[in-house]
Design brief:
four-stranded antiparallel sheet; 43% helix; 18% strand
């Protein structure tokens, strides 16, 4: 249980995108080929680089291949609220067309690699890729569900419940990308970032993490989170995945990814 974590990372750079889009929609072979060829347009971003500025209108749609980005708003005095993350396999800037001005900034939290998703969006909108159109629509629903979860987390949950719920959400999303399992997943976040997500002070985040450790619910080691008692964490935080997939269908799609 406590051995070295080995993420399930396949050698192809677009695997996380393929896995997630297959789960969200039934894709034809030609639609999957379109996704695979996006790897020829990769772009690297340094930590702290702004991908989308608050108020920005025109912007390119992208998929995250590796690394983490966040959506945030910074107050004049420097305080920050993070609304959500863009994790490997997930999209940035895929939404209404033409895009409305961005309500917040999107910033790379770690070294980040993205690919241009415009060919996928264009194929979906033109009717040439109905499977991708369904997957993109489901992806937008997923983002709305995550935002609703985040509102409930901030507005009604205790610090203890918030941290448990947040860790379970990340575990689920990273497992979909093939970067973790039901128990372990990478967590390259500082306690300051977690505080800015969860609306808590750094001290409060630290105390809550220590409590979860003392109760043998989690372990945190070298950028890896381990959920020692996942079912109990689910009960504590009333965690429900933002998008439900039928287990048989989900397993079949993951197996073929």
């Amino acid at each position: 249980m406590t051995g070295r974590f080995r993420p399930h990372i396949a050698p192809r750079p677009l695997d996380a995108v393929l896995r997630r889009m297959r789960l969200l929609g039934s894709l034809s072979e030609s639609e999957q080929d379109l996704l695979r060829h996006l790897g020829e347009r990769r772009e690297r971003h340094a930590p702290g680089e702004e991908l989308i500025a608050e108020g920005q209108g025109s912007r390119r749609a992208r998929f995250v291949v590796s690394g983490w980005a966040c959506r945030q708003r910074v107050l004049p005095d420097g305080r920050r609220q993070i609304f959500g993350f863009a994790l490997p396999g997930e999209a940035i800037g895929v939404g209404e067309r033409p895009p409305a001005p961005a309500l917040g900034a999107t910033v790379a939290l770690t070294a980040l690699e993205t690919v241009d998703a415009e060919p996928v969006v264009e194929a979906a909108l033109s009717g040439r890729a109905p499977g991708l159109a369904r997957a993109l629509q489901q992806s937008q629903h997923f983002e709305q569900a995550l935002l609703l979860d985040h509102m409930v987390r901030l507005g009604r949950q205790t610090a203890y419940e918030r941290v448990a719920h947040f860790l379970l959400e990340l575990q689920t999303r990273l497992q979909v990308a093939g970067l973790g399992d039901l128990q372990r997943f990478p967590l390259p976040l500082t306690q300051e970032i977690m505080a800015d997500v969860l609306g808590l002070s750094i001290v409060h985040v630290n105390r809550t993490l220590q409590q979860l450790r003392r109760e043998k619910l989690i372990e945190l080691r070298s950028g890896v989170a381990i959920l020692l008692q996942r079912d109990l964490l689910v009960s504590i935080s009333d965690y429900r995945p933002a998008v439900q997939l039928r287990p048989a269908a989900a397993a079949a799609r993951l197996a073929s990814a």
